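Re: [help] complex structure
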Amino acid sequence: MRRSLYPLLALSVSCATAGARQAGAPAPAPQAVTSESSSVMRPQYPTTYRRHPNAAVLIRNATIMTATGQEIPDGSIFFKDGRIVAVGARVDAPANAVVVDGTGKYVTPGLIDDHSHLGVYAAPGTDAESDGNEATNPVTAEVWAEHSFWPQDPQIPLAIAGGITTIQALPGSANLIGGRSAILKLIPARTVQEMKFPGARYGLKMACGENPKRVYGRRGGPSTRMGNMAGYRSAFAQAEAYRRRWDTWDKDHKGDPPERNLRLETLAEVLRGNIYVQNHCYRADEMALMEDLAHEFGFKIRSFHHAVEAYKIADLLAQDSTSVSVWADWWGFKEEAMDGVQQNAALNQQAGGRPLIHSDSPSGIQRLNQEAAKAMYSGQRAGIAITRDQALRWITINPAWTLGIDSIVGTLEPGKMADVVVWSGDPFSVYAKAVQVYNDGWLVYDRRDAAHQPRTDFELGQVPAPGTDR
Amino acid sequence: MIAVLLAQTIAITGGTVYPVTGPKIANASVLIRDGKVAAVGSNVTVPADATRIDATGKWITPGFIDGGGQMGLVEIGAVEGTREGALRGDSVAAAFNVAEGINPASTLIPVTRIEGITTTLATPGGGANLISGQAVLIDLDGSTIEQMLVKSPAGMVAYLNEQAKDAGGGSRAGVTERLRRVFNDALEYGRRKAEYSRAQMQALSAAAADLAALLPVLRGDQPLIAVANRRSDIATALRLAREYKLKLILAGAAEGWQIADEIARAGVPVLVQPLDNIPSYDALGIRYENAAFLARAGVKVALLETDTHNSRNLRQQAGNAVSYGMTWEQALRAVTLSPAEIFGVADRYGSLEPGKVANVVVWSGDPFEFTTGVEHVFIRGREIPLKSRQTELFERYKKLPPSY
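Output below.
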């Protein structure tokens, strides 16, 4: 069975608890006592992802950037049945493999954006498609981004053409606790379930600072940063008690199960370590407070997102093993974003942290490679010795780690999922474009072949068909 | 500023010069004297008293011009107290010239100019306007507004896109009806000022000051910068320009590529942000190739970076315009000489020629590439220190913990 090929899948099964099951993990054998009466024992919106059948592919004579420290000139990569089989200077491939001449081209892992609102803030950007913020309560841990996600968002093919193969689709930042994220393979699909990354943990979107204050300041609060902190603490204090009740019942399943509370169920999963906290936070001092919140309740913050001031506390963040998901150069659009510097990623790398470049933008997601290039060269020009491999990691394996899927994707290594991008040139050049994008071995985009340029339903009959370029 | 007043001679020698008005010149020099370009070429005589800057291996271009954004008019996007770019509650704000809203001490100015952008348009807008006011062209150096101004006004900004519909009563047809009424009233006001003063005129559709401010536009002396994206809206702008004999500049023009020939025939220049491609009902046909297709049809194109805080990314916009079909030379022209021509300052700006204002940038390589850094920036002949609030923050925190 294909699932067992990916180590994390097995892990996620063991992590599953009665509180909320991991997507993709099969529900355990129903307990005789409760199977008919308890929804919690049934599958929770499981993934229906299936690998698209494809011919084996050999790309040769290309510069292969593996994101494992290697850049192989005149190299080859062979993948088959959705898995990378071999990478190197010389690679054996069977005669029936489709051969792609990579002369002058570069090959990287599929890019991963750990901060996207594709599908939840879909184009054409009308109120009707605005499904990213459940701004009705400052704590909405019970909502799931996948329940808003529209697979026909015309922004999806644009991002695919930029070499993106996996995204984390997040709720917005209006709320202190905004809800669960969805980790998705970026492929054409009819339903979000078909896109759900098999075995991936959910993320929990949390937000610091100005946004929750602004949204709720005149609607019952919080209206201050201290109000924000009190809001997180109250929510997690309730979740602690909820978790205890369920964990006790889970031991022997005696008596009626506790009543389900969807909000606390998600937070209890955070406390169990099964859901990763993805925390929108700009200011250095606030990030330090959020780390203390995490210590108080015994969870880890997986990544600070936007983290415009992360460079000021890069040493502290490295100590806490919290990654930082940053832009190359966004700044100034609000007060907590005033202290942006172009060396943010580089300084965090220098401090031993785990920086990565995210987009938070349907436009930026189309050129994550360019954003990484800007951040790398800004660092280099300021005297920080960032390598090309490190910068590539900012858009591949580091976001994969942040999402907990780094054993499956994010590098070009035998055994990993065949998420592969062929670039027209050095991906850190402004003039380079993705020419082919393979997702799990499936050629989802080919710049030179209209048959491999997927279009959403939305585009048909109203958005002019692209020529050779989009 | 004192430096500008001093008679100073600077010789940038040994670089590859891109004058824009002609082919690149290898191993050439640019001589700057008293804030102006004094000489350009491969056999320039360098005076003995000149300050020499060795540009061997470097690229030398005119300073880039961003034809969009709100430089000096916004400090923090979400902090209203720092925004000066839009008038509220006035859908016809033609008399509103943004110049006196400009803050020469804005932190955005050093952040932008040290990356080679030396001149920008400061544009009124952001409200629900039909006519948002008068844009001005500024150099990114100077301690007073007067010192910064290159041209004021540089154009009158009007909206013919979805955003204007509220001010037009909820319909695109209402927008044009209202605009025509305002234009007609302005013309009539111009003819009958005396009667207006004696209160012998019917009620007009806008305040007298706004109508008066439109007269230079209706005489064809001042350009009308019309923001329009949908093909039909662009066609409407062209129609209005024909009716009123306007000197039109199209801005945005997302679907302009679909009627590029018509725009070219009308001789109307276009301001384009190359990296716009997210479809909306205002522009379902938006695409990366817009700038290239317009240029290919013979339209004069200037490129924009409309995110004021990242006006420095005009370089990236230009590089991507090349990726999506412009020639490199077209893209360079679209961030230098073309905007200077479009805003009527090409006699002073946009190329490296004797007599022009010495806005000059020395780059380590191709200015559109990420590898390239800025080595020297001159604005009106003054060498700009490569410092900004951001470089100071970096210096403070490059070693942790910082010393305060």
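Confidence is low (pLDDT under 50) at residues 1-5 of chain B.
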